[in-house]
């Protein structure tokens, strides 16, 4: 495999998330450079970035290794997501562009159509694209970066079951976009908070013995969801 030097970090991260490198396994510069067809310099830089992101740790006498997150750390990620995604939606209602809104509406149309047809193959990727665009619409590069890292880490640490009712899930996406389009930041925050909390129940840890529920407590949000379905 030969990839551009600037893409080495993304490639290693994607392989860690996909399980190509097991937790705790060594990541030597020489082997990584050979695998991705680059020199050791971009590999070294990538490992530093991935260490800052929490995917890699440096151990005495072993060098760079894939991190081994604890169950508590994994649960913390979902709790952080439940705080930050509603904030991002609230900011998006204030700062989104017409281009962001066009993409969001297009994704909702696709998601709702495929959910009604029972075609679930593409729904996960469409959902990821939706939340990525929503984060970008917040107009905050720092917040967008944090949410992107959270999505990567959650994908690494959890398996995600398909929603019991994908039509309802995409109706919630539509309600978020409606609030963002109206510039209603409080509504956008509230609907996103409820959507994020509901989706968190579908996450199951990949590690720590038998698969477990995420352990995040389900609080009851007093959210007015009238007009949710279209």
TrEMBL record:
The keyword Transferase does not apply. Residues 208-230 are annotated as: Disordered. One of its GO terms (molecular function) is DNA binding. Residues 2-69 form the HTH gntR-type domain. Keywords: DNA-binding, Transcription, Transcription regulation. The keyword rRNA processing does not apply. CDD domains: WHTH_GntR. InterPro entries: GntR_C (IPR011711), TF_FadR/GntR_C (IPR008920), Tscrpt_reg_HTH_GntR (IPR000524), WH-like_DNA-bd_sf (IPR036388), WH_DNA-bd_sf (IPR036390). PANTHER family: GLUCONATE OPERON TRANSCRIPTIONAL REPRESSOR, TRANSCRIPTIONAL REGULATOR, GNTR FAMILY. This is GntR family transcriptional regulator. It comes from Streptomyces guryensis. The lineage of its organism: Bacteria, Bacillati, Actinomycetota, Actinomycetes, Kitasatosporales.
């Amino acid at each position: 495999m030969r990839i551009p030097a600037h893409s080495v970090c993304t490639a290693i991260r994607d392989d860690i998330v996909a399980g190509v490198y097991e937790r705790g396994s060594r990541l030597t510069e020489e082997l990584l450079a050979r695998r991705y067809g680059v020199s050791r310099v971009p590999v070294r830089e990538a490992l530093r970035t991935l260490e800052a992101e929490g995917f890699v740790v440096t151990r005495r006498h072993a060098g760079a290794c894939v991190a081994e997150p604890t169950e508590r750390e994994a649960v913390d990620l979902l709790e952080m997501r439940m705080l930050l995604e509603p904030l991002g939606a609230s900011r998006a209602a204030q700062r989104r562009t017409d281009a962001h809104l066009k993409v969001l509406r297009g994704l909702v149309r696709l998601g709702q159509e495929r959910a009604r047809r029972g075609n679930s193959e593409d729904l996960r990727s469409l959902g990821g694209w939706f939340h990525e665009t929503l984060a970008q619409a917040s107009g905050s590069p720092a917040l967008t970066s944090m949410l992107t890292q959270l999505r990567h880490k959650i994908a690494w640490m959890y398996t995600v079951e398909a929603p019991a009712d994908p039509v309802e899930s995409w109706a919630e996406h539509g309600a978020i976009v409606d609030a963002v389009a109206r510039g209603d930041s409080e509504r956008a925050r509230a609907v996103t908070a409820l959507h994020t909390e509901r989706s968190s129940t579908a996450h199951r840890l990949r590690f720590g013995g038998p698969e477990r529920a995420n352990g995040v407590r389900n609080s009851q949000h007093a959210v007015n969801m009238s007009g949710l379905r279209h």
